[in-house]
Design goal:
The complex is a heterotrimer.
Chain A (H helix, E strand, L loop, with lengths): L15 H4 L3 H10 L2 E3 L5 H4 L7 H24 L3 H18 L5 H38 L16 H11 L10 H18 L17 H22 L3 H24 L1 H7 L4 H7 L3 E2 L3 E2 L8 H16 L11 H4 L9 H26 L15 H20 L7 H22 L1 H5 L1
Antiparallel strand pairs in A: 2-3
Chain B lengths: L8 E5 L11 E7 L2 E8 L7 H4 L5 H8 L7 H16 L5 H30 L3 H21 L8 E2 L2 E2 L7 H24 L2 H7 L7 H6 L5 H5 L6 H4 L20 H25 L19 E9 L2 E9 L5 E7 L1 H7 L1 H4 L5 H11 L3 H5 L1
Antiparallel strand pairs in B: 1-2, 2-3, 4-5, 6-7, 7-8
Chain C lengths: L1 H26 L10 E3 L9 E3 L9 H5 L5 E7 L5 E11 L8 H5 L7 E3 L10 H4 E5 L8 E3 L4 E3 L15
Antiparallel strand pairs in C: 2-5, 3-4, 4-6, 7-8
Classes of the chains: A mainly alpha, B alpha+beta, C alpha+beta.
Chain lengths: 436, 368, 169
């Protein structure tokens, strides 16, 4: 009892880590380190002389380098249609030698499976790329930078990170949903787009399946996706979703018609419903340098192109025709109640359809893999096809970030009273070409 | 008696809806996509500022007025100060008057820019929003330079303004005006005359002159219907009688007219700001002898100004103490909102957004 | 008939005008700032986080009277006899209530100002308790806040270093 109470320990020196054990705070601390910019750069300072900006010059240089590098790579690789056919032949002989008792259809089935897997991966990678690209394009159109951190160079891994997030996200669903339909709807929307890619010729001799009625097949398959969207709207037990789903049904069915009729002249000119045949019909050059693409057939080609382009934008549910998911009216439309991987499937479907639509435009009107002049034929056909497709994908993105949205009844007027009549008129215009 | 029975659907639009501009709730009864009945429901942002003002000094009330129409707070500051100055019989220096007009007008540009951007989003175009905000950012930079805040300014004070313009402000302002003139043409190309935009707005939400006057609309909503009522012309305050500008009116009173009146008003504001910058006299910006805690004599005063959203009035009753006895604000957004229930009926769901956006309400002012 | 073709032409022409605008912006440089990596310095008059300097404060209570939202509180230091002197015992600012209106800074009679708006605009709080910044005897001049979980006063760290951006008038 004699001893006095121990003296209070000396106050320790301030330690930020001990003071702030919270991980969030430490993360914030690591992020808030930055340079302090003196003075603000207004657009009126920067835009009259954009080239004074060092990052702007560097960006232009990098983009140019990427383009030249891609062309060089393509020329180095050359045509890949013939080597793949040789590989197929080699595989068949190898399989017959190894398994002589296996029936021929089973050997072929394995090869088709491989092709399907390749196409699936094209769709998935295309989805990842397009989302990133759309975000960058939209950002730069709007004087922003867009994703910039993930992956180091301009956020090129951003969509991979987003995809991972969607994968591990809790799958929240409304309690009153129609459980079975709710689950099947995203798959029903996604599966057809996979089938649609089968007859698309990605270059010379580079299609998964040469179907004689390829066009009908593509349109038939893509029509099934509507079902997924309508079911998603219905099964979500949400009024906004329901409206979105019903709008989508009306819109997509209506725009199928002008879309199909607008390419009747092309089918008539090529004399075939096969996509490969249509590409073949556009080979060759007038006067040795001007490509015989259907787009350059006076009047008919241009009208067809415009109608097909507009109808394609509508078919892919993108602005100015994004009525089903009209954000400002219907919150998110048919996918309001979807989250996680189910939402990702709808997302993938949209971008796969964008890619498909652009590929079809390139095929029908711009000669598929044909080079614009004979001189440029050294660059392989698949590269031409890809660049044409990506150009039209860019157009889709460009439209989206420029235009307002139609109203549903005006949208219907537009297709039934403008596009459809003009596509019929266009068929009449094409008669002289067919008999010439 | 066994007809096919259809039923209407009730949709709660808001308060957590992307395009109800804050916390407005619209109870919509739909038949398919057609509106049968629309009931605006307000009060989600009510803060009771009129009551709070009765407990605070006059200087402190100015801070509160910032929070009504937070998109364009300068006219709110101004109207309160005008009312309080009427009570106190204060003489405002000429420079302070010019600065008040200057600030109110560039605030009008900022406010209309926000309207333009959000209206683009309502109609479905995202890019004009970012463009409008890019330009708005420059206006906010000007405000930050002059008074230190970007939205809630507390710049116009009883007796003048809180601070004179800093060095180099007028040059920056002129730079902005020159840049902004070109941008209005860009908005015309991108949004105003876009065929889809015209299609969505030109024939929608038509408010006749009579309806607009009956419901007591003011500001661009009234002028969009073709009534040239503008407080700056009919009851000039500050130095508006010395400035040359036009009152822009629309033709039919459609959504597009209300939108276009605002675009035209931005060009008029540019004119006014340029004149103010040219005529800006030298002198003090604060009247002498304004008490730290003012106690105006008992009495009442009403002042109104043309705020960005219409005729903003303040009725102020003083009882000789340091706090107002009663403060009442005639908020233009609140009155403009009321007309919705009449014009929405019979339209499509998508038109609700177009019309609601075109009335350009700020819920902070509606609910106060 | 003529009007019909005219309307079609106008529709497409109007459409292309918009496309031209967006395409031009696509190739113009971006104007945004990569926020956490690069920060804008506010202008000289910017009204950021309030700071308080106990060394100059005379405890006159004018800021408390000026504040429209009662966010400032202080207690004068007292002599052993219980008489108030012109020094503060403690001083607290509740940023949950603060209006950033500059009225307190304007009425402050000392030179330089004892309470003033710094240029710090990164108001980041992870709890309501952090919003109440208080200075008391022995604290560093930026003050502390009470952490109810750890039952200690914590020094706010990881704000923008105010030494770098002073704005004391």
């Amino acid at each position: 009892m004699a001893e006095a109470a121990p003296a209070a320990p000396a106050k320790p020196a301030f330690d930020p880590k001990a003071a702030c054990p919270d991980i969030r705070r430490r993360l914030w601390a690591s992020k808030t380190k930055g340079t302090l910019l003196e003075g603000r750069l207004w657009p009126s300072d920067l835009w009259p002389h954009p080239w004074i900006s060092e990052s702007y010059r560097r960006g232009a240089f990098v983009l140019g380098a990427i383009a030249i590098g891609a062309i060089a790579l393509a020329v180095g690789l050359g045509e890949i249609g013939a080597p793949l056919a040789a590989l197929h032949e080699f595989y068949r002989q190898w399989a017959q030698a190894r398994l002589p008792e296996a029936p021929a259809w089973s050997v072929e089935a394995v090869w088709i499976l491989v092709k399907a897997i390749v196409v699936l991966h094209i769709i998935l990678i295309n989805g990842l790329f397009l989302v990133w690209w759309e975000r960058k394009i939209s950002a730069h159109i709007q004087s922003r930078l867009g994703p910039i951190f993930v992956g180091g160079w301009h956020g090129w891994l951003q969509t991979v990170a987003d995809g991972l997030k969607l994968l591990i996200k809790e799958d929240a669903a409304p309690a009153q949903k129609d459980s079975w339909l709710y689950r099947i709807a995203p798959a029903l929307a996604f599966a057809p787009v996979l089938l649609c890619f089968a007859p698309v010729p990605f270059g010379r001799d580079l299609e998964a399946a040469n179907i004689d009625v390829g066009i009908v097949y593509v349109f038939a398959c893509s029509g099934v996706s509507v079902l997924g969207i309508v079911l998603a709207g219905w099964a979500s037990a949400n009024k906004y979703s329901l409206l979105g789903g019903l709008r989508s049904a009306a819109q997509l069915v209506s725009y199928e018609l002008p879309r199909a009729f607008s390419i009747v002249p092309m089918v008539a000119l090529a004399g075939s419903l096969s996509l490969t045949k249509i590409v073949q019909a556009q080979e060759g050059y007038w006067m040795g340098f001007f490509p015989k693409w259907f787009f350059f057939y006076p009047i008919v080609g241009q009208i067809s192109f415009v109608i097909f382009l507009i109808a394609s934008v509508a078919e892919t549910n993108r602005t100015p025709f994004d009525i089903p998911e009209a954000e400002s009216e219907l919150v998110a439309g048919f996918h309001t109640e979807y989250s996680g991987m189910k939402f990702a499937l709808f997302f993938l479907t949209e971008y796969a359809y964008v890619f498909l639509a652009a590929a079809l435009i390139a095929t029908f009107f711009f000669g598929g893999g044909a080079a614009p002049t004979p001189l440029l034929s050294v660059i392989p056909s698949w590269f031409w096809f890809l660049s044409k497709t990506l150009f039209f994908v860019f157009c889709f993105l460009w439209f989206r970030w420029t235009f307002p949205r139609f109203r549903i009844d005006r949208l219907m007027d537009f297709t039934w009273k403008f596009l459809l009549p003009w596509s019929f008129v266009n068929i009449i215009f094409s008669i002289p070409y067919i008999f010439l | 008696m066994t007809d096919l029975k259809t039923d209407t659907m009730f949709v709660n639009m808001g308060p957590q809806h992307p395009s109800t501009h804050g916390v407005l709730r619209l109870g919509l009864t739909l038949s398919g996509e057609i509106i049968v009945k629309a009931e605006p429901d307000i009060g989600y942002l009510h803060r009771g500022t009129e009551k709070l003002a009765e407990l605070r000094g006059y200087h402190q009330c100015v801070v509160m007025t910032d929070r009504w129409d937070y998109v364009s707070a300068m006219p709110n500051n101004l109207v309160f100060c005008l009312a309080a100055e009427k009570l106190m019989n204060l003489e405002i220096s000429s420079r302070a008057n010019y600065l008040r007009v200057l600030m109110c007008e560039i605030n009008r540009i900022a406010s209309h820019l926000l309207f333009l951007g959000t209206y683009g989003i309502d109609i479905g175009a995202y890019t004009p929003f970012l463009y409008a905000f890019r330009e708005r950012e420059m206006v906010l930079d000007l405000f930050e330079m002059a008074c230190g805040a970007r939205t809630t300014f507390n710049y116009i004070r009883i007796g003048g303004v809180s601070a004179d313009l800093p060095q180099g402000w007028t040059e920056k302002c002129r730079e902005f005006l020159n840049y902004f003139k070109g941008k209005i043409r860009e908005y015309d190309d991108l949004l105003t005359y876009n065929p889809i935009f015209l299609d969505r707005t030109k024939t929608v939400g038509i408010l006749s002159k009579e309806t607009a006057l009956d419901w007591g609309l003011t500001g661009p909503n009234l002028r969009g219907s073709g009534v040239p009522y503008d407080v700056r012309k009919t009851d000039p305050y500050c130095v508006y009688d010395k400035l040359d500008f036009d009152v822009c009116v629309g033709e039919t009173g459609s959504c597009w007219d209300r939108y276009h009146v605002r675009v035209l008003e931005m060009t008029q504001s540019i004119r006014i700001v340029e004149q103010c910058l040219g005529q800006l006299p030298a002198g003090d910006v604060m009247a002498k002898g304004v008490a730290k805690i003012p106690k105006p004599p008992a009495g009442e005063a009403y002042a109104h100004v043309e705020a960005s959203r219409g005729d903003l009035g303040i009725y102020l009753v003083a009882d000789g103490s340091s706090a107002p006895y009663r403060l009442h604000a005639r908020a233009p957004s609140y009155i403009n909102l009321a007309v919705l229930q009449e014009i929405l009926t019979g339209l499509k769901l998508a038109d609700v957004i177009a019309i609601l956006g075109s009335t350009d309400i700020v819920l902070g002012e509606v609910d106060r | 008939m003529n009007g019909y073709f005219r309307s079609i032409y106008d529709g497409f022409a109007g459409t292309f005008k918009g496309l031209r605008v967006t395409l031009r912006h696509l190739v113009l440089p971006s104007i945004t700032v990569n926020y956490p990596l690069a920060k804008l310095k506010p202008y000289e008059r910017f009204r950021g986080m309030l700071l308080f300097d106990p060394a100059t404060c005379i405890g006159c209570n004018l800021c408390i009277k000026a504040c429209p939202s009662d966010c400032i509180d202080l207690e004068n230091m007292k002599t052993p006899e219980g008489k108030k002197i012109a020094k503060t015992q403690w001083y607290s600012i509740d940023f949950g209530k603060c209006n950033f209106c500059k009225l307190c800074e304007e009425v402050c009679p000392t030179k330089p100002k004892s309470v003033w708006h710094s240029l710090d605009y990164e108001h980041v709080f992870f709890s309501r308790h952090e919003m109440v910044r208080a200075w008391k005897q022995g604290d560093p001049w930026v003050g502390t806040y009470w952490d109810p979980k750890e039952k200690v006063y914590v020094i706010p760290e990881f704000q923008i270093p105010i030494e770098e951006v002073p704005s004391r008038r």
